[in-house]
Specification:
elongated, about 15% strand, alpha+beta, about 40% helix, 11 helices, single chain, five-stranded antiparallel β-sheet, 9 strands
């Protein structure tokens, strides 16, 4: 429901509340479909505003994991990690099977590597973040044609990559960790070492997965931590990039960002902090403006993203709801077919 000026009505709107005369008699009932003559009568009676029902927008969100499936996996991962204590890793073996379940679930989807996914900004904990990282890295690995064994190792590494955060008593969600005290910042940067050390002697997890856990915050230019390592495997690069992206949009160790801001960050740091080829692969299937995002075009129109265009992650189909003068309209534009129109800003 929204309050709308009568002067902006164009017809066919549906009243969300009764409209009364000055004598408090019902002039038009809730649910009435406004016709031209009704709008004219409202104007004659000097009724300037009415409440109308907002149209249900047919947005089509494409997620890597369905919501109920993701909740099931989150519950499983959380249960396993919360039972874990440092150097007592028996329960963690279950995460190997959980990684395979996630990978299998992804593979069951048709055209899994051809879709553009609506990966949305959200508030989440390390359990949900680890599952989303596993999903993102799995898609990247599949698009790169990596072996089944390697995809499995990546999945396991992703689910365990932030195990070290469980050993910290530092608040790191939705805040810039560089703003922590010097002592807390130094402690936070040790979490990959803590996790690696806890798992170093385990035989059920591969050395490649252990490396992903240790190196997931390293960067190409040596600006990462904890070791400032630069000579690492492509599998580690996959986890680094997907982790950096998902951390930004869910606020793990940083202030939460919009998806388009995280995308721009990766683009700016291609071949500097991150492997450019892997960044390109991630961005191939990541919608810059997820379904449901409120946007403004370069022509000054306001609209909502309905769904994505295959092969064009930054050129979605949008429904225009207001023209450049703020007048209510209802029209659909496919940005893949209109070269001179683009998204200029995201409206909070």
């Amino acid at each position: 429901m929204k309050l709308c000026k009568v002067d902006q009505l164009i017809g066919k709107e549906i009243l969300a509340r009764d409209v009364f005369t000055t004598e408090y008699k019902i002039l038009l009932s809730e649910g009435t479909v406004l016709k031209y003559e009704y709008i004219q009568k409202l104007k004659e009676l000097n009724i300037r505003q009415v409440y109308i029902k907002e149209k249900e927008l047919d947005t089509k969100t494409v997620m890597i994991l369905k919501e109920d499936v993701e909740k099931t996996f989150k519950s499983k991962v959380k249960s396993i990690l919360e039972r874990h204590t440092y150097s007592h890793n028996t329960n963690l073996v279950e995460l190997c099977q959980t990684a395979d379940y996630i990978i299998t679930n992804i593979l069951e989807e048709e055209e899994v590597v051809e879709k553009i996914y609506d990966i949305k900004e959200r508030s989440s904990d390390i359990y949900e973040h680890s599952i989303n990282l596993c999903s993102l890295a799995t898609i990247v690995a599949l698009k790169m044609g990596l072996s089944q064994e390697t995809v499995h190792d990546i999945g396991v590494g992703c689910l365990l990559h932030d195990l070290g955060l469980r050993y910290l008593a530092i608040v790191y969600d939705d805040q810039d960790i560089s703003q922590l005290s010097e002592k807390e910042f130094a402690e936070f940067k040790k979490h990959p070492v803590y996790a690696y050390t806890a798992l170093r002697d385990e035989t059920w997890i591969s050395n490649d997965s252990k490396d992903m856990i240790l190196y997931h915050h390293e960067r190409l230019d040596g600006s990462g931590y904890p070791l400032k390592a630069t000579d690492i495997s492509k599998e580690c690069h996959i986890v680094q990039i997907c982790d950096a992206f998902d951390e930004m949009i869910c606020g793990i160790g940083c202030k939460r960002k919009k998806v388009y801001e995280a995308v721009e960050y990766l683009k700016r740091n291609k071949d500097i902090k991150f492997d450019g080829k892997i960044v390109d692969i991630l961005l191939e299937f990541t919608a810059v403006y997820p379904a449901g995002t409120i946007i403004k075009t370069n022509e000054g129109e306001t609209g909502i993203v309905l769904y994505q265009n295959k092969q064009f992650p930054d050129r979605p189909v949008i429904r225009i709801t207001k023209d450049r003068n703020g007048i209510a309209v209802d029209k659909v534009k496919d940005l893949a077919e209109i070269n001179n129109v683009y998204v200029e800003e995201v409206i909070e």
